[in-house]
Amino acid sequence: MRRPLFTQATPATAETIPGPRSRHAAAAKRGAAWTYSLGAAPALALVAAIGLSVIAAADNGARLEHAGSEFAFWLGLLLIYLPIALRLFGRSAQPQERMALVLTLGMALYVVKVIHSPAGFTLHDELASWRGVQDLLESGHLFADNPLVGGYSVFPGMTAVTGALTQASGLSVFVSALVLIGLARAVLMASLFLILQRASGSARVAGIAIVVYACNPSILYFDSQFGYESLALAIAGGLLLVVMRGAGLDPQKRRPSELGLLSALAILTAGLVITHHLTTYAMIAFLGLWSLVIAFTKRRSPLRQMLVPARRGVPPRLSAQLARLRVGPALGCLMVSAAGLFWFVFVAGGATQDELGSVFTEAISALFHLVFGGSGTKTLFKAGTGQVDPLIVRVLGLASVGVLALVIPLGVWQIWKSYRTKPLAISLGAVALLYPFTLVPRLTQAGSEISQRASEFVFAGIGFAAAVFFVQLTKSAGDGRARTYALIATALAGLVFVGGVILGESPVTRQPGRFEVGAESRSISPQGTAAARFAAEHLPRNSRVLVDGPNGLLLGSYGHLEPVIGSIRGIPVPIVFFSKEFGFNARTVIVHDAIDYIVVDRRLAHSLPVDGYYYDRDEPLANERERPISASALAKFNQVPGINRIYDNGPIVIYDTTGIGRR
Amino acid sequence: MRRDLALVSALAIAALVVALLPVATWLSAVLLLPLVLFLPGYALAASFFAPRTVGRIERAIYAVALSIAVVAVCGLLIQLIFGLSRDPWVVFLVIVTVGAALWANRKHPVEPLVWPAGISPVLPVAIIAFALAGVIAGLAIASAGSGLREAQAKIRFTDFWLVPAGAGSLAPGEETLEVGLRSHEGRPVRFGLQISRAGQILLARSLSLRAGETWEHTFAVTEASPGVPVIATLTREDKDYRRLELVPPR
Question: pLDDT: is B213 or A16 the higher one?
Fold first, then answer.
């Protein structure tokens, strides 16, 4: 019978060596503390830094449309990823070296995002976050309405921290945000490593699991952006560590006092709940799952005694059972649930329902259309402009999914074999099994966001399952064969990593470059920024403005205006732009939706939008348009009495519509 | 007092002093960033977790995560009383840090860190290598910034606006308007500006703007011709360039 993995010897480390218990003992231990063995980590950090330099050159080339910049981008990414992966798959690295490598990998991938946008924010959530922080700096108060992402006003954790950093240090919001999210990334990687190490009892499993975790499609840009989720993941990492400490998963350490654990748990819970909804709910789900697994695998668990009635005698009262709960997953789940419920009921319910509700209902509706036919489906690897990814890219994207689909069942089976008595490991295995369910929404436009958001949680389980499988596979192999296995695994991980980047980011936004229509970061242009600056200086704050998506982000953040989307009296507001003439519907929208300004970007008439829509996901002919919006439709405002043309920078024109209401 | 807690308290107090004095931004950042992102969490973790109940890396994780959480939560409370600005933040964070450090020192007086008798000879080399990697990564970011500026310098345009000047109304029946230009042309460019209403020229000006320069001018119009627009035309190096129209608000 094979030995379970968690009984494998873990080399003693600075993390696991029990410390001396007195000053004398401490003196006797002198000399042991700083003899870290970082092995190849410093050299691989240098290689990763060279990879970053290659990516910087590639992005500079892409901005100037130089040939070969895409190849250089992939080369740089693989220079960062492959050497670290190979070392972590190998057997010889010590736990300290593995931790250093994991941190190096996480930070290097974060810097890729910084290199992509080195001088300012370009992503949707970043500009929305900027608006929240700026409102805080100007008013001194949180909870100001955020016209770009409603959730930011009722989950003000990140706004408060960034505001504190900016006000205290005197740095700009942009630099403060880079420091904050960079630190959050380091905390996330380190805490995830420790969590997986304790779940498995093996630093090697933890290191490999992080190599696979780094393949999640969100890690490169979405989780590196200045957004509340990026910060919440770090708090969640700390919270899980406290819960694990309470659950006694590190037997080589003394258990901290219950009061200390409870206090830390309370602060982290409060911090998490006011920072991000989805991470809170994911934490509740995971802690709940872990508690249930404990309840059904440990006979003496208090939760089990609550859930499963005693066969004989009078069962103890619920209050007595609750009093027996110590800090662990069940209490953690209860605390996060209670705090999350409080925040939902008294503060954030409406905004959360609006934001998450719309994401989920759109996804479900799109899935319905996918199954039964209709609009809303999408063709994988195809942009809204009709541009299709090259064959090699499509093959890599699909192959990465195939590798994971093969590894997950093997890994989960191995977890069941080796860790049957370890509830945390079983829970992580269960999380890995969610992967196929996160893939289905990716087949629809609206569901892609859910799939993307889910990946950062699900990949923790996938990484764990894959790592357990690999370590078990190579456990009894000789050194030569183990090296071969490590090489093969590194190649496969590299494939999955490349596939993750392909699936996570469209080819248009993967690298910076010239202006593209309806293409998120690629549509953030100097002209748009200049228009936003003009609006901030000359237009009344919070004026309502009709504008395309990317320029709306700039005007809603830097411009301090309020972009309007949706419909009024059953008329979709983008109709104002699409109609050839300024007719009854357009006038109804302007008057009844109290529109103050219309912003026209004449470049929209040059091509179809990459994302499939110009103004709003629900606009007429979204994702189905075959010709760009007509230039004459965009120019019609010049002839409308009551509409004043007040700003022009070439591509972007701003019209004042307040005369329409007065007429 | 425990050395680590004494150091944390000293850094917090130094941050308070720096916050009160007019100092360079870099010095302010060096001392005040840890006050927000590390010191309160470290002191709180020291009071929650006795020495040797958690490892060094785990303690560092708690230091950052607890700092972030405590700043987020306390931001809600501070804004109710004072409004969030630099002074309340700094004073509050120093109180949390020093208070938690004193409490931790009372509860757990044993030193958590073992001072090394010697350092592994490999460690300085490793530190230098990591620092070098950090420098290379920093240079990569700087290079990307430079590349971005180079690419943006090729995009040349000029902002042109004509808006009501807001509260600058001079007299009943008169409205103040503002006309302005901001050059993003990357070099000095000559413009011709003309403002007219009902065929009457209100302003004609020849302008030369350097890269990044802004020119603004306010002028009054009467409501003698209500509903008749003010028209601003701009030529760039003697070619028609931009045209704006505004009916002065009544």
Answer: B213
What part of A 254-283 touches B (C-beta under 8 Å)? 254-257, 259-261, 263-264, 267-268, 270-272, 274-275
Rounded to 10 degrees, the C-alpha dihedral B129/A234/A503/B140 comes to -30
Q: What is the mean pLDDT of residues A341-352?
A: 92
Contact A365, A376 (CB under 8 A): yes
How confident is the prediction for chain A on average, in pLDDT? Answer: 87
pLDDT in tens, A290-341: 999 988 887 666 666 555 555 555 556 666 666 666 878 999 999 999 999 9
| Confidence at residue A283, expressed as pLDDT on a 0 to 100 scale | 97
Residues B149-204 pLDDT 10s? 999 999 999 999 999 986 444 455 678 899 999 999 999 999 999 999 988 899 99
CB atoms within 10 A of CB A406: 11
Both tokens of A105, joined, read 């990998």
Query: Which region, left, alpha or beta, applies to residue A39 given φ > 0 means left and ψ of -120 to 50 means alpha?
Result: left
Query: d(Cα B137, Cα B134) in Å, to the nearest integer?
Result: 5
A376 CB contacts (<8 Å, ≥6 apart)?
A: A365, A366, A369, A370, A444, A445, A446, A623
What are the DSSP calls for A295-319, one per residue? HHH-TT-HHHHHHS--SSSPPPPHH
Per the CB < 8 A criterion, the answer to whether A228 and A155 are in contact is yes
Contact B141 A256 (CB under 8 A): no
Q: Which of residues 16-35 of B touch A (CB under 8 A)?
A: 19, 25, 28-29, 32-33, 35
Please indicate if any CB of chain B lies within 8 Å of the CB of A346.
Answer: no
3-state secondary structure string across A343-409:
HHHHHHHHHHHHHHHHHHHHHHHHHHHHHHCCCCECCCCECCCCCECCHHHHHHHHHHHHHHHHHHH
Nearest-Cα distance to chain B for A310, in Å, is 35
Whether pLDDT at A34 is above 70: no
3-class DSSP state of A443: helix
Q: Tell whether the model's pLDDT for residue A496 goes beyond 60.
A: yes
Of A26, A118, A259, the CB nearest to B141: A118
Distance of CA A482 to the CA centre of its chain: 34
Q: How far apart are CA B159 and CA A152, in angstroms?
A: 32
Q: Is A245 at the interface with chain B, CB within 8 A?
A: yes
Q: How many CB pairs under 8 A join A and B?
A: 356
**In this structure, what token pair is assigned to residue A5?**
């993995």
Q: Residue A53: list chain B partners with CB under 8 A.
A: 136, 139-140, 143
Which of B:28-67 have CB within 8 Å of A? 28-29, 32-33, 35-37, 44-45, 47-58, 60-62, 64-66
Give ipTM to 2 decimals.
0.92
Q: Lowest-confidence range among A246-260, A411-425, B81-95, B226-240?
A: A246-260
Cα separation, A106 vs A110, whole angstroms:
6
Is the Cβ–Cβ distance between A207 and A88 less than 8 Å? yes
Task: From chain B, pick out residues whose CB is under 8 angstroms from the CB of A133.
Answer: none
Question: What is the arithmetic mean of pLDDT over B230-240?
Answer: 92
Residues A198-255 pLDDT 10s: 999 999 999 999 999 999 999 999 999 999 999 999 999 999 999 999 888 776 678 8
Is the model's pLDDT at A573 over the cut of 50?
yes
Q: Which of A645, A625, A639 is nearest to A580 (CA)?
A: A639
Dist CA A336 CA A333 (whole Å): 5
Q: Is the dihedral of CA A416, A422, A426, A431 positive or negative?
A: negative
**Is the pLDDT higher at A318 or at A143?**
A143
Q: In angstroms, what separates the C-alpha of A653 from chain B's closest C-alpha?
A: 9
Q: φ and ψ at A330, to 5 degrees?
A: -65, -45
More confident call, A11 vs A179? A179
Please check whether residue A166 is in contact with residue A137, taking contact to mean a CB–CB distance below 8 angstroms: yes
